[in-house]
């Protein structure tokens, strides 16, 4: 009976983790484009695999994770917690990276990426992936604790979600790489996620439904535009 009672929370948690994982896949895919072709899959698999190790490790430190919700200090009436500091740092990092990539893609063009590509190393990009993994992991674990009590449910959800991400990462990365307009859209998505992390760190709650609905609507518009405006065909 206990197993049956945990099925719905487990499935709900898997869906939630998968949605959060898509943001991670997009970020990893955009960074992977800076590497030679033979290293791109390696960065994706290492990034996703290490995110699983990180989340499983953090689950073992669940008591410490929950203490991150305690107030450390107060600024202008805003209680700053350990979780808030991590979300603020992660959100600002994501905003910086997204804004920088949008500038390179939209203003400087693809040729401007050549200097960055020369400087970018597998290790540097993997470190950037792990920074964002840490932010998303702590956020998702605190959310998971509020939904379920059994640790095995959380461990199962993490493992299943990582399996889904490993399967979905290459098709998503290939799609983004083939369509430059979707790459800009994906960067805008990451910019929105970064802003929502900063807002959450300051205890300003932005309903996740609004964020993902706006993303889905923008994605649908881009798909319609891609289907109706063919290369060489002037738009209306």
TrEMBL record:
Which intervals of the chain form a coiled coil?
none
Membrane-spanning parts: 6-31, 43-66, 72-96, 125-146, 152-172, 184-204
List where in the cell it is found.
Membrane
Gene Ontology CC annotations of this record: membrane
Q: How does it sit in the membrane?
A: Multi-pass membrane protein
* Keyword entries, A-Z: Membrane, Transmembrane, Transmembrane helix
- What does the sequence similarity comment in the record state about its family? Belongs to the TerC family.
Q: What protein name is recorded for this chain?
A: TerC family protein
Organism equals: Spirosoma aureum
